[in-house]
Amino acid sequence: MKRKSIDILALLNKIRADEHTVLIVLSFVIGILSGLANIMFRSAMEFVHTVLFVKGTEFLHIGRGGMYKALLPLLPMSGALLLIPLSLLFPGEVNGYGFPEFIERVNVRGGFLRIRNIFLKTIGPALTIGSGGSAGVEGPIAIIGGTVGSGIGQLFRTSESRMKLLIAAGSAGGIAATFNAPIAGVMFAMEIVLLGNYEMSSFAAIVISSGIATFVSRWYYGTSPAFTVPQYDLRGVGEIPFYIVLGVLIGVTAVFYNRIFHKMKDEFAAMKLHPQLKPVLGAFIVGGLGIFLPHVMGNGYEFIEYALVGKVLFPVIALLVLFKVLATSVTLGSGGAGGIFAPALFIGAMTGGSFGYVVHQLFPSFTANAGAYATVGIGSFLAAATHAPLTGIFLLFEMTGNYKIIIPLMFTSIIGTLVAKRLYPDSIDTVELSRKGIKLHAGREVSVMHTIKVRDAMHKDFLQVEEGTLLKDLVRNMVDNEMFYVPVTDKLGNLKGIVSIHDIRTILFVDAVKRVVTAGQIATEKVITLRPEDDLAVAMEKFSLKDIEEIPVVDGELPGKVIAMLRQRDIVALYNKELLREDLV
User: Fold this and answer.
1) Of 34, 84, 184, 524, which is the most buried if we count CB atoms within 10 A?
2) Same domain as 397, residue 254
3) Pair 544, 461: CB distance under 8 Å
């Protein structure tokens, strides 16, 4: 691989291709490969669905109803069981909703992705979704496309910033090919993968990859939009307030989805059951729900179209909101593989359809029918759940091809996103990152501060003295060891205070005082401390509380035991080194 990359680079040097030309060529290649990867992924999922779900339904005679219908949970359980060998071979890389980790790797860890992700994110979700698990293909295809971009970046040994751009281009291509929506692919990459932290120089590469991947998908699947919906009209300005109210409802529901999703994941994580059996239990629960509401199984695209044309009755469509949230949370929280986009589209359609049914019954002359609100709900719920309004707006527009819904969609998406952010600051993709202390939306520099731990910058060559130490001995030790901040402990080694050179400079030359006063008598008792697991952002906040240059680092389990010191200048040096490392070519 190394020899090959050198040959390619040498060839590019011979033809004197500048950086922008190389980037365009690479984006073109990434677009083709992302489009082909989408075809491979969808074919795998369709194959699994036919073998496990369709043939399994026929084999178990589930279609006959009655007692046979009780066998339905065996179908998703078969997919979960087939996941076990894969998850044993590649622990931590197969199960669950892997998109947050993908975002972290792209924005924080340099964007190095293993090529085997293409295989794992194809087979794992295909087994889960194809057998009836409640999940979507969009997260996995974004990771697959991103891995294609990362592979190209590794081949050309690009800088981390350029690697990040190529990954975003690959993800854009994957999403664009999946939904036949090139503009939405671009917005997805910019809003969700890059979290809004991008430059205009990034735009060309992402657009090219997204467009080429869409072309490849249309060449294979045709040009039809993902959903076929009737052409709805906005009844007039008087209908806008109803869409604003829908936006509020969408925002609240998105937060509910977010909280239940992560709550269920926590519950399964705490469950005393073998990790390989948790997805099987989750599949059993989802299959049990499917006995009564089969709509919640799989990606649900077929039932979304029913809602868009008004073929789902109100009591059922309202129930589907709750049970689709539950089914998706159980599927992915237990360890099933897949994404949250398709469930979000489903929940949005059912939420909008339920609301639309009610308002149309109450105000038939002022409002369109329930299908119009279900259509708007698709894009606006995705926008609110991911905090990415442009992605939701353009995705729905391109998926439906209906320009007349764009105005109510804009109102609903923006209101829904604002409400969701107000009620819960994290999107469904960034909750786990925030739990780790990673604040990616704050920008790259702040993100770097959140990812470096105190243990990486602290130094253990420090001086500490007992509280009974005379000041003259303390001063001599500080001078000999060039230490300007000295922790003071009791006889058991527990921290009692700290002495700085600034505290004693007024009495340094008074011999009588130095022979009588002890370290414990002049030490500052209210000591600001850090733990090794704290990040540098926390450390800088504590440094800003007082005009100090060093802070003691204490044991996380024994907060009275000082194990190191952290200097402010060491933080700055390590921070600058990390930024330089990311920017090196």
Assistant:
1) 34
2) yes
3) no
